[in-house]
């Protein structure tokens, strides 16, 4: 499943679903996901860790915090937790059931494989020394990511028929991993 990155067309930009993931300055690097509209942005979800602590805390050697995505009111919607101690592999849990898996596919920490029930397998590739990258499936569905104006913000564009909460939660998780450990 190897593919070259290409920029979205004008039609994909105008008809696609645009989001922003933004990491805050809090010690646990929590953040928010916004849906972009022409007039204003709408807060869709918040993300963070439970318990709240720095990703570089020594307590993480014993037990990693759980990545939690919640609605704007603070109600938990989804969790992403580490499933293997040695291999960077994470399980996506929604309503107590496993709905997917995220695993690091490169020792350089720049490629992630995301398998989501009902959505297929995604490969998110973040080439070194670039701010434009994306992801794709074997079926040809694409997503595009532009970093900026700072590394704490990802601008995400999904194809018009692709608007999935689990995929966006996975991208928020990958963004936080990239920020904290990349």
What would you say this structure looks like, in words?
- This protein is mainly beta.
- The protein is 13% helix and 43% strand.
- It contains 2 helices and 12 strands; from the N terminus they run H-E-E-E-E-E-E-E-E-E-E-E-E-H.
- The protein has helices spanning 10-15, 165-181; strands at 17-23, 31-36, 41-50, 66-70, 76-82, 89-94, 97-104, 111-116, 120-125, 132-137, 142-147, 153-158.
- A 12-stranded antiparallel β-barrel has the order 1-2-3-4-5-6-7-8-9-10-11-12.
- Strand 8 and strand 9 form a beta hairpin.
- The protein is globular.
Give the helix/strand layout.
Elements: H1 10-15, E1 17-23, E2 31-36, E3 41-50, E4 66-70, E5 76-82, E6 89-94, E7 97-104, E8 111-116, E9 120-125, E10 132-137, E11 142-147, E12 153-158, H2 165-181
Antiparallel strand pairs: 1-2, 1-12, 2-3, 3-4, 4-5, 5-6, 6-7, 7-8, 8-9, 9-10, 10-11, 11-12
Summed up, what is this model?
With 182 residues, the chain is mainly beta.
Helix count from the secondary structure assignment? 2
Shape verdict = globular
SSE string:
HEEEEEEEEEEEEH
Contiguous runs where pLDDT drops below 50 for at least 5 residues = none
The class by helix and strand makeup works out as mainly beta
Radius of gyration: 16 Å
| CA(first)-CA(last) distance | 24 Å
Features:
12-stranded antiparallel barrel, 2 helices, mainly beta
